[in-house]
Amino acid sequence: MNAADFDLVIAGGGLAGASLACAVGTLGRRVAVIESFAMDDERQPSFDERTIALTLASRRVFEGIGIWDAASADACAIDSIHISDRGRLGAARLDRRHVGAEALGYVVPTRVLGKALNQRIGELDNVSLHCPATAERIERHDTAITVHTADGAALRAPLLVLADGGRSPLGRQAGLGLECRHYPQLALVAIVGVSRDHGNRAYERFTEHGPLALLPLSDRRMALAWTLPEARARALCDADERIFLDALQAGFGDRCGRFVRAGNRRAYPLSIGHLSRPASVRVVAIGNAAHVVHPVAGQGFNLGLRDVAELADHLAERWRDGADIGAAAGLDVYCDRRLAQTRRVSRFTDGLIGLFTSSAPGIGSLRAAGLNLVDLLPPAKRFLLERTMGRHGRLPRLARGLAPGAPR
What we know:
The protein is of the alpha/beta class and 408 residues long. It folds into 2 domains: 4-75 and 105-180 and 272-370, FAD/NAD(P)-binding domain (3-Layer(bba) Sandwich), CATH 3.50.50.60; 190-270, D-Amino Acid Oxidase, Chain A, domain 2, CATH 3.30.9. It is 34% helix and 28% strand. The chain has 11 helices and 22 strands. A hairpin with a 2-residue loop joins β15 and β16. α1 runs parallel beside α4 (110-123). The longest helix has 30 residues, at 328-357.
């Protein structure tokens, strides 16, 4: 069987895979994207009920690949963040003015991002979408790798990118199977209505089970992500709306006024894990196929989009130099760039969960003192915000609003 030749094959057409396809597509390269779910399938993770808190750096990436204008009408800016510990007096208040930014981030429904990405892919003649199609096996050659799909297609390129979140068998075949540790809670997500204007403020309230986050949306709505024990999360998903709203009011308090309505409720598992090396022979993993973190502090998707920006930079440089993009030496360079940040974010999010759910004697008072200290020290606020906004350290070109491979 003859294989169709491409410059790059991407397994997974969700948010990370589609973003990379758009980024590489702007370079004029032939890209194939294999996605098992139809783009309008409700099971497609890019079209579920969740929202994403994008950092400023992530907004720059979306501007660079040409989708921000299509998504921005449904994006709500985060001007400030209120962090608190339930049952304690400690609190920290972070504001965009502390770092002189137009916003600390933006809250966007995943459905909006998925639609904008699919629209952009449709505009790129050099991006070929194979959907719905299931990638079943890989075949490695000296200078290329071939992906075989269930419907008998064969797609060949110098490099395969796994952006499927671990849903396909390709990761195991490539030696990149992601092993995760599951938290004993679920994240209950929903859109809730509030009785008064939220003032573009986000809330992160830590409870005995984990964080309860509320992110601002338009029209007095907020996106809820509530960490709860599995049985409690599933019960509240199925509960009468009034019972659910009363439980949320009791868990959060009245800083947002009254919770007056709730949209569809769903519960998602929570886990943590990362590959010790996100690449093998002619294969590299990005996004949730390479790392999974707890949604506390909203770093998960932003971490995956940073993979996209770094990999797009790396590929542009290799192509410019006439180098083999799938060669081990080049992939080692990319891995070294990503591993430090991935491990740092993983330790940070897991550490936060451990710290704020611990019932060890005296730990609650230390948490309160720590939050109050951050609230009192402007340098501490700037330190924390620069990192959570994605503006710290060496930034790839897309995260700075530049095209991949552009002069630094």
